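Appendix B. One record, verbatim.
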Amino acid sequence: MKTPLPLLGLVLLSAVSCSHESLTRPAPPPGDFAARGRELAHRLIIVDGHIDVPYRLQEKLGPGGEPTEDISQRTAGGDFDYPRAVEGGLDVPFMSIYVPAELQKTAGASKALADSLIDMVEKLARASPDKFALARSVDEARRNTSEGKISFAMGIENGSALEDSVANVAHFQKRGVRYITLTHSADNLLGDSSYAEGAHRWNGLSPLGRQVVAEMNRVGIMVDVSHLSDATIRQVLETSQQPVIASHSSCRHFTPGFERNLSDEFIRAIAAKGGVVMISFGSGFLLQAAQDHEKKLREEALAFIQQRGLKRESPEVKTFIENWLREHPFPRARVEDVADHIEHVVKLVGIDHVGLGSDFDGVGPTLPVGLEDVSRYPNLFRVLLERGYGEAELEKLASGNVFRVWRQVEAAARP
């Protein structure tokens, strides 16, 4: 599991109830919503904007540098594998090419890791050509689906992979990358992160970041505003000539003060530019109770570290966190909470600007009850059907909206 907070490298479990905000919709016709949800999940194309399989495999490489898990078969761990993706109806997972912020300290390290993770995704597709295929365009993704294959699209999470070179934008476009999240858990050469503590380095986008956004527009890579500070998002929206996406973000309405989620202002601004907000499934994105729980754990663990003069990665800290979590169970969200965030976006800007960006394999055991892995998308469809959503609306949520933006960005690319 990757996390911008090293202290919480263990993270969390349990369940909590919460209220639900719903739109006023006509009552759906009576029927078996679970069966209908399964049917639609398998008939409609489902795109998930952010799944962390590559880094999950990278963290568990064997002695020969090969993955120790075979995701073409059912795996004991993780949130994604081929059998479960088929069960859930997942067609086009964006494989996250995740670059940890700490690599920014070493010149060349970020790009090297990004290239190696792309190599891994390509190798996974080559090793199981009857199950997986790369998707560098919407047309390729649709064709792969028609052939019964799961498409691997790719997005870079952390623009530090570009190092200090605008030319690397075109390099990664040629390698199949179709979106870039400009920052991750720290400010970088492109701009400021929502997670960075203290004074931001650039007060938004850096001069290099503005050049990178323009170059992404030129070569046909979607700009991803997840992880950006508010000032950076605002400047990206001013700079980009094309719609942008938030590949895995939820609504700040439910988590006041959590800058990593999007405010209503930015949801409206992204929609006004034609973009899409892709809802993340991690409980910390969905529930204020989870935010409060994580804050309390951070405070108590930091106090423990300071009292004992320990390093954050020491075994004593790990034991402290494990014991604390046993005594204070994590308030886990439910599938209904994800539906609440979807509905909030729809209420603000309509069905044309929302999608799915789970962060499977990236948020550990903080996933909602009912959305524990990629086999569970039908549960979300069931809840939305119960709330009166129709097939046309679910098709837009599942893939239509992000396909529209992807096509527009492709069409505007200039050689």
